[in-house]
Amino acid sequence: MTGIHNSMPPMRLSSSKMSDSDERLQWNIQVFGTVQGVCLRYMVEKRAHDLHLYGFVRNNVNGSVSASLQGTLKQLEAFERWLRSNPGTAMISRFIKQSVIPEKFDDFQIKH
Fold first, then answer.
1. Residue range 77-112, pLDDT digits in tens
2. Which of 11, 67, 69, 85 could form a disulfide with 101, with the two C-beta atoms 3.0–4.6 Å apart?
3. Strands 2-5 and 91-100: what pairing?
4. Which residues in 10-33 are b (16+ Cβ under 10 Å) and which e?
5. What is the CA radius of gyration of the chain?
6. What is the pTM of this model?
7. 41 is catalytic
8. What confidence category does residue 20 fall into, taking pLDDT thresholds of 50, 70 and 90?
9. The one catalytic residue among 59, 81, 86, 94
């Protein structure tokens, strides 16, 4: 699996009540390979709920899967480790991650 990582520091949503480790970050991730038709979106949704992440996942017309995820750095890193392990029968051949300015998400969902 190859990876492309953006060198930009993560953008944060912060509050005076939040510590640095609680700041909400957002990563946009796109994966290529055998990622559609293998229930990856449903596994991503379940893992995102397990980790208390916000955002969405969707299939793209080019055969890739994209996710926008919000959570703490610890939560996002746990998600990335899980996704890079090729969950289920997915076979990820390319992984792109970008830190972006956080949007407002109240839950995690599959977009169609």
1. 999 999 999 999 999 999 999 999 999 999 999 999
2. 11
3. parallel
4. bebeeeeeeeeeebbbbbbbbbbb
5. 14
6. 0.82
7. yes
8. low
9. 59
Please, what is the Cα angle at 70 between 68 and 76, to 5 degrees? Answer: 95
3-state secondary structure of 29: strand
Contacts with 61 (C-beta within 8 Å, 6 or more apart), sequence order: none
Active site residue 12: no
Say what the pLDDT of residue 24 is.
Answer: 93
Q: Residue holding tokens 């970050």?
A: 25
3-state secondary structure 15-80: CCCCCHHHCEEEEEEEEEEECCCCCHHHHHHHHHHHCCCEEEEEECCCCCEEEEEEECHHHHHHHH
Token readout for 101 is 């300015």
DSSP for residue 22: G
The reported pLDDT for the residue numbered 44 is: 98
Per-residue tokens: 24: 């909400």
Amino acid at 21: S
Class at the top of the CATH hierarchy for domain 30-99: alpha beta
For the chain, which residues make up each domain, given as ranges? 30-99
